[in-house]
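Anyone else keep sequences and structure tokens together like this?

Example one:
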Amino acid sequence: MDTTGARAPVLYETSSLLDCFSDMPDHRQAGKVAYRLDEILLLALLATLAGAEGFTDIARFGHKKLNLLRRFLPFANGTPSHDHMGDIFAALDPAAFRRCFTAWVGGLTGAAPEVIAIGGKTSRRSGSKSGKDAIHMVSAFAARQRLVLAQTKVSDKTNEIVAIPALLERLAIEGAVVTIDAMGCQRDIARKIIDKKADYVLALKGNQGTLRDEVGVFATEQKARGYADTTISVDATVDAITDASKPVASSSFTIWAGCRSVTQGASHMAGPRRARHRRSHPRDRPREPTRNPPLHHIRDARRQRTRPHHA
């Protein structure tokens, strides 16, 4: 049976990985290198995809699947032990690795992401009562592709404000809609997104008190006047969210880069304990009938924050 067609995608993806990591610096002494860096990276990727959760699992995979690995690279000296592999990864430059990994993942999406949801998550059981801090990660998640494009570790949730601009700098986001929760509702972050030729939908809460108060006054006044001088639309989804988008006409919005409209969402929770919540979201573009409504961008962001995902 001819397996050339079946192997072609696998060979392409392998080549893509190795190309993206080709400029990854290797600080080991050349004369003492028994295992090439590209071999180590390929082994780690395939083992992780097969379910490996640590260096011991990766080393076991390499020992049992050596013939498979040699279809792609020589592996002249076989595969390293788990201790040796841990030492190799510990010596890698983290910033360079993130840059190469982000470039590789970006190529896997096949098409530019429509919606990129950025948010932080604290890993369950990563902390301890003895004083060990929990691991908090800030991730950029391509909602349509269901793929983490990049992520970075921060010491605690308050440091997301510093981490988000650095995360955006590493991503190719031109033409995408970036959604961020209230922690990322900052003027500098909005400016960074606009500078990278993307659009934003930011959650608005009490950390931007003046802006939130003006949005509340603006919405109340427009509702009392029957939205006579605004454009309003209502959309419903399976999780019963409604949304109304209005052009911005307030002096406070002028200091936010590109902010041109405000969306208010109301969610209704069915069941014995019914609840109703309202959210405001400043946007950098007015509602356009030919585009997906802002409701869907907000919904994608909420799904990113409520579902687990992995790089």
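And example two:
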Amino acid sequence: MMTTFGRVWRTGFKNIFRNAWLSSAATAIMVVTILVLTFFAFSTVFVRTQLAQVRSKIDLSLFINDDATQNQIQTLQSKIGTIPNVTSVNFVSKTDALDRLKNSSSEGAKLAQSAQDIGNPLPASFEVKLSNIDNISATNSSIKGLTEASIVTDSSYDNRDDSRKGVVENIIKISNSVSKIGAVLSILFLVISLLIIFNTIRMAIFTRREEVEIMKLVGATKWFIRGPFLVEGALYGILAAIISLAVTIPLTRTISSFLTDKLGAGPTLQYFSSHFLLLSGGMFAVGILIGVISSWLALIRYLKL
């Protein structure tokens, strides 16, 4: 059994070199396919990560009247915390607001000094974190409906310019576009890979037709005859995955600084780094699957046993 298995693999390996040009074309297009799928996966994770980061930074700010007492502030904070969609409520005092402005930038420091000179007009506020930013309008209405909310003078939602919401919507649009383009390109190259490997195996069957007839006459099993062709297809996938990794790893290391500094892709790179074995296994799985399916279709169509 092991001897037969080994012979099937050896024959499949030799078949690759019998049609060098077709083998090269099949491997090359499969490399492109795997790289496109990898880029698609990276883009999807990157856009979703960026979207999650932006959405997490969007909260609801409630500005408090300067005359509000400490008891009123604590009571309202407790009430807000019980409202659905609210994950946390953080109180920012007038002093805290001034310190934040001072530490924000050099220009902020100048503004903070001017504000301090005139008695700090910055209001105290509540920063309300939401579990679902899409329900911010309903949450804002629920808070304003509280009896204790009489000390609230304004909210970031009521005074919004929709710029932050627009950022989220733009990222969602980009995410959807990336998904659609990636899916179309992936399907296109998958089909091309299937067709090229299909024709490569067809040519291999034609080239070895006399050898196949002899094996049939001496009683070779169907598995023994078909096996080398399936192995050939699988080897195309394995070779393509190795080349894809050889391209991906140094390329990622070369542009990692740019991706991190300019695009903020650090979390995405960290994700793929921590899941490197899964990514590599996926590359090999895709390559082998394409090769075996293409070979099997060619065998069904052209190899009559």
